[in-house]
Amino acid sequence: xxxxxxxxxxxxxxxxxxxxxxxxxxxxxxxxxxxxxxxxxxxxxxxxxxxxxxxxxxxxxxxxxxxxxxxxxxxxxxxxxxxxxxxxxxxxxxxxxxxxxxxxxxxxxxxxxxxxxxxxxxxxxxxxxxxxxxxxxxxxxxxxxxxxxxxxxxxxxxxxxxxxxxxxxxxxxxxxxxxxxxxxxxxxxxxxxxxxxxxxxxxxxxxxxxxxxxxxxxxxxxxxxxxxxxxxxxxxxxxxxxxxxxxxxxxxxxxxxxxxxxxxxxxxxxxxxxxxxxxxxxxxxxxxxxxxxxxxxxxxxxxxxxxxxxxxxxx
Length: 315
Known about the structure:
It is built from eleven helices and seven strands. By secondary structure, it is an alpha/beta fold. The two termini are about 40 Å apart.
């Protein structure tokens, strides 16, 4: 995460004044993390790489209880959205209809894990959750996890099982990447965060002459956070996000006082695939009018749910 922060520093801070004196007046960098140790540590690592020898502790740092970054104050205590539960049940029903081969692979993986940890197959959680834990071993060059207090190598997760888990994750994700129910669920769960991003960008466009306004917003969340956003925007590739994956929204101002955005996933420009930017012409040079983003969040999403606000969307 420190290296990722350094990369963003080189890309976005080079030649710009993010000076210490500016932080004393008003933080130009805002950071929000969910209340999990790993997301907080990731945020601090990224922030240290981003600001380096500057007083990074003076950046505005906030914590979020919700894994989708919903703020109760901003959404008027609507982070517990009832419609999410109902659509989740529809999604689960759709997911139960994946090809037999995918289900067979899932049973095979769970049987192997149950054998390693000496528990019943029913106690093995969702494979995506297990993969998230096991991948921390891979990313840090550690041996695969083993059953506690055992020195028997058969009581350790094998690399072949790890590969099978990846295979399952890929097949499962591709199977459900085009589901309308999953898209609606992504819209409901990611809407508060996308709404925050639009409002933050609007603040920048309204006060673009003020050097001390916040210009860099960091949200340190989870794979579910990213997947929800990508499904809502129709740019989800169907693959589980790797560690340190990121969706980046860039805001650009033009001398004619028009504003534009780009949307990147792990550095790849996906702007033309975003649902409200898909009709861009060659003359746009890959930039999407910011007003498209505003209209989508403040009007179009409501119309899709036949609602006038987020409260009605959640009914």
